[in-house]
Design brief:
The complex is a heterodimer. Chain A is mostly helical. Helices cover 71% and strands 0% of the residues of chain A. In chain A, α1 runs antiparallel to α3 and α1 packs across α12. Chain B is built from eight helices and no strands. The longest helix of chain B is centred in the N-terminal third of the chain and has 23 residues, at 15-37. By secondary structure, chain B is mainly alpha-helical. The chains are: A mainly alpha, B mainly alpha. At the A-B interface, α5 and α7 of A face α1 of B.
């Protein structure tokens, strides 16, 4: 380490907050893709988490711009990128990309939960009743025909949502990937790597949210659902890791001029977070554990433990990956002849404690959101409340019952 | 609000219409706020507020034109500095903006802080600062908390301490 560093590279300007931004955005995109696996691709095993995943995606979406706004220092300036849009700047596109995705997510959630909202607005009392009444926007028709229309709208929005989610997160990778002066960032693979690791982290998040919610509600965990998530997590983890390694191996095998710098970064700059946390804990361990977590001969308890443990490891691993990309890239001097140093701080200057606070925000949002839009409300319970409601028999459920 | 069977929902109560109205409202509010927030002169010359140029032009000048103005009264100091390490610096780099002092020399007497904060701006040891080009020190251990000017004359940094590099 050491070498020649330009004066303006001494301070690592993108700190932990900027590490959290792609992390939280990735969780959003990943959770949304899980909800789409059920709503668009008809993976019926994922039904127990189909609504939970959308609510989590929405809650984390609220948390996605928080680290950016706090990093700005002057949060209101964020609106300038929307008021005076700049078409040649990828970074300036965030406002519109984020808002478009937020609208898609809100619309999908609204149409998905409209029936629940209407029922709550009729059964709850006082302020809560008025609150739900407001949320229904006065559209209180929950006849089978109207609900059927809702489902059609939801499925269209889910279809539109997939490219939007890919765009929202692929775009984050694009920003890093298109910085050609930085050998650790500059690769057209970056958007794809970001997207796949986002899906990985999103599934891991849902495994955790789903298991914890079942524990809190004292409900049996749906093992086929957990096994399905286990399978998808494993598959996407393989894809994501393949691309991540491919990028580094390719650079090394080609022996590009910058390879010595990148090798130095990996072996001396960020060996603990890259080789240890990201690759060791976040990839290798779950890759081994996950297949055992769905082995038929093993008991449900072992399956749960292994899958949840893998989920936690993957979540930590992806956070480390974001750290290694964002911070690691800034450690390589533009001189390609020296390394800057990253200093951990606790409180000041995007320290660990404020970063943990930012990370806690979407978690708290999820807790609030599942109170407002309970994603586990079963159809039967609803029918006892309102006998006019006919069971939802849509093509999604028919597909599910066929399996 | 619950419907009787067979009765049609009025189009104004349909979900799509309601949510559409909300969306249009959001867009209209965005448009209005944008109209109010973007300065009138934005884009006049380029991707920035045109008035900003006028504002800079009309700002009060605070710096005096250059060392030759200082030399009219402080010839000895300017002469001394011109022969030593700091000869590339403008007087006002350390002394601060001096136009007011030049206009009314007896009424304004600016002070220069000869402490480690001022000198350290250039002489503090840093990763990106090559010792080949500038003499850098670890200010804490080098001066032990004393002001730099106790040992160094800023106009001739080594004069007080024996004349040559230590």
């Amino acid at each position: 380490m050491g070498g020649f560093v330009f004066p303006n590279e001494i301070h690592v300007n993108w700190g932990l907050f900027i590490v959290l931004y792609p992390y939280i955005t990735g969780l959003v995109a990943g959770a949304f893709i899980v909800s789409s696996l059920y709503h668009v691709f008809g993976v019926s095993d994922l039904k127990p988490v189909s609504r939970l995943s959308l609510v989590s995606a929405l809650a984390f979406l609220f948390g996605a711009p928080v680290p950016l706004l706090l990093h700005l220092g002057q949060p209101l300036r964020a609106f300038n990128i929307m008021f005076t849009p700049h078409l040649t700047s990828a970074m300036a596109g965030f406002g519109y990309i984020y808002s478009f995705y937020m609208i898609i997510c809100l619309l999908e959630a609204w149409f998905m939960f409209r029936k629940d909202l209407v029922i709550f607005s009729q059964t709850k009392k006082g302020f809560v009743r008025r609150f739900y009444s407001l949320l229904t926007l006065g559209a209180k028709d929950i006849s089978p025909k109207a609900l059927h229309t809702d489902h059609k709208v939801v499925s269209v929005l889910a279809v539109v949502g997939i490219p939007s989610a890919c765009f929202l997160h692929g775009y984050v990778g694009f920003i890093f990937g298109s910085i050609k002066a930085n050998p650790w960032w500059s690769t057209p693979l970056m958007p794809v790597i970001f997207l796949l690791s986002a899906i990985v982290s999103g599934i891991a998040l849902l495994i955790l949210v789903y298991t914890i919610s079942c524990k809190v509600r004292k409900v049996e965990i749906d093992i086929p659902c957990l096994v399905a998530m286990n399978k998808y997590l494993w598959t996407f983890l393989i894809f994501a890791t393949t691309l991540e390694l491919l990028e580094v191996l390719h650079m090394g095998y080609e022996g590009k001029a910058e390879w010595d710098m990148v090798r130095g970064l990996i072996t001396q700059g960020i060996p603990v977070t890259y080789l240890g946390v990201q690759m060791g804990f976040g990839v290798l361990t779950p890759l081994v554990l996950l297949p055992f977590g769905r082995a038929k001969s093993w008991s449900d308890g072992v399956k749960k433990t292994l899958t949840v443990a893998s989920g936690v490891l993957v979540l930590i691993g992806v956070l480390a990956m974001r750290f290694n990309v964002v911070i690691g890239g800034q450690l390589i001097s533009k001189s390609i002849a020296g390394y800057a140093q990253f200093h951990w701080t606790l409180l000041s200057d995007e320290g660990v404690i404020p970063a943990l606070g930012i990370l806690a925000f979407p978690v708290v949002m999820t807790l609030i959101m599942v109170r407002i839009l309970p994603p586990w409300l079963e159809e039967r319970k609803l029918q006892t409340v309102n006998s006019n409601v006919t069971p939802l028999s849509t093509r999604w459920e028919l597909k599910g019952s066929g399996k | 609000m619950e419907e009787e069977p067979g009765q049609k929902t009025r189009w104004s109560q349909k979900a799509g219409f309601r949510v559409g109205v909300v969306l249009v409202c959001v867009l209209v509010i965005f448009g209005i706020v944008r109209q109010m927030s973007v300065p009138k002169s934005f884009g006049q010359y380029g991707y920035y507020r045109g008035d900003n140029v006028e504002e800079w032009v009309s700002m009060d000048q605070t710096f005096a034109p250059g060392n030759q103005v200082c030399a009219q009264c402080h010839a000895q100091e300017v002469q001394a500095a011109a022969q030593a390490e700091h000869n590339q610096l403008d007087c006002q780099s350390c002394h601060g903006p001096m136009l007011a002092h030049v206009k009314q020399p007896n009424q304004t007497h600016p002070k220069v802080a000869g402490n480690v904060d001022l000198c350290g701006a250039c002489h503090r040891e840093m990763v990106g600062r090559s010792k080949d080009n500038i003499r850098t020190v670890q200010v804490g251990s080098h001066s032990g908390g004393l002001d730099c000017v106790r040992c160094h004359d800023p106009h001739q940094p080594y004069a007080k301490i024996g004349g040559g590099r230590q």
